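Priority: medium. Attachment 1 of 2:
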């Protein structure tokens, strides 16, 4: 298994492996997700966002590193913890934020909310609230790639909690049987709601969960965007070459609660603080860029730009009108 051939991945890679230009791009994209999510949290607190809302803060390096290896036409599908994927795919922060506030300018015209947004233009297929369901849909997307004779790949993101769902294994079987170009991205943030992975999974090496079907796997430090990108290259190349699926276990961490209501009693505050202080993916890249001689002012300029983008998105999300009541009758039925 290729996981055994990469003993360095969890312990750390030879750094830096990206150019300053690429690192700066990753920095910008991660800061955008972080600030967007912080603002969404504020709007939620102000009562402007209703329903479920799951923030991606802490996990930014996973999606940004993977996205850097994708090309036009590659497809992405994920769970309800989906804002980071949307922004990394290049969806408009205005449309995403306005969907959160339930406004007309949102991606689903205010009718889907946090968990139900799509963009066929950016090949983003949601946003799914049923734990594990997106994995089966993800291999469907991969099947379409193959059926159409393209070399496009599909990324199916899911959590370590979802990784114990039966349909994930059915998907592994079909994907391996038909050699579907699907990268299974298992985001191990160590908790499924309030249950730690130690308490929910008998398998302790999740990257090996595809072994019975011959699916190669690799464990990756998901707090390190460069390590993520390196692993993404290997997995995506494997899929593009028609060799079938690949499983990446991303060791990551969410700083905030599972959703906006979370008792936070299942882990000590010190554990969260330790991750924030010593393993933050944005701090890591900031240090690397400064070490490469990039000016502090350049980083500040990028952060200012992000702030402006997020403020603009939040303003739009509060001024875009609420959907007209007649919208209740649109997009609910597709006539055959
Ligand atoms: C089929 C199904 N079972 C249970 C739930 C309730 N539920 C919502 S999120 C969640 C935890 C999933 O954890 P994980 O897969 O680790 O993803 P994370 O939230 O950490 O990103 C559960 C059990 C659900 N939405 N769907
Ligand atoms: Mg989890």
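Attachment 2 of 2:
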């Amino acid at each position: 298994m290729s996981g055994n051939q990469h003993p360095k991945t969890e312990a750390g890679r030879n750094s830096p492996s990206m150019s300053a230009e690429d690192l700066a791009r990753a920095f910008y994209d991660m800061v955008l997700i972080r600030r967007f999510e912080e603002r969404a949290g504020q709007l939620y607190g102000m009562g402007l966002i209703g329903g479920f809302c799951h923030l991606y803060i802490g996990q930014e390096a996973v999606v940004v590193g993977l996205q850097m290896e994708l090309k036009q036409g590659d497809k992405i599908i994920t769970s309800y913890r989906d804002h980071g994927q949307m922004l990394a795919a290049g969806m408009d922060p205005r449309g995403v934020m306005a969907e959160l506030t339930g406004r007309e300018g949102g991606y689903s015209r205010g009718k889907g909310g946090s968990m139900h947004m799509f963009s066929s233009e950016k090949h983003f297929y949601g946003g799914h609230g049923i734990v594990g369901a997106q994995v089966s849909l993800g291999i469907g997307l991969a099947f379409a790639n193959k059926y159409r004779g393209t070399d496009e790949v599909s990324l199916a993101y899911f959590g370590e909690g979802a990784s114990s769902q039966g349909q994930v294994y059915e998907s592994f079987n079909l994907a391996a049987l038909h050699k579907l170009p699907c990268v299974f991205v298992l985001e191990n943030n160590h908790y499924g709601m309030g249950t730690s992975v130690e308490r929910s999974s008998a398998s302790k090496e999740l990257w090996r969960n595809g072994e019975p079907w011959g699916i190669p796997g690799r464990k990756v430090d998901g707090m390190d965007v460069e390590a993520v990108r390196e692993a993404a290259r290997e997995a995506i190349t494997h899929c593009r070459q028609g060799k079938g699926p690949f499983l990446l276990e991303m060791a990551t961490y969410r700083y905030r609660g599972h959703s906006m209501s979370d008792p936070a009693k299942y882990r000590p505050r010190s554990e969260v603080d330790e991750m924030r202080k010593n393993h933050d993916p944005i701090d890591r890249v900031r240090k690397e860029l400064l070490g490469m001689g990039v000016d502090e002012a350049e980083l500040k300029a990028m952060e200012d730009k992000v702030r402006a983008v997020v403020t603009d998105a939040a303003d739009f999300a509060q001024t875009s009108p609420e959907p007209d009541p007649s919208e209740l009758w649109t997009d609910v039925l597709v006539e055959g």
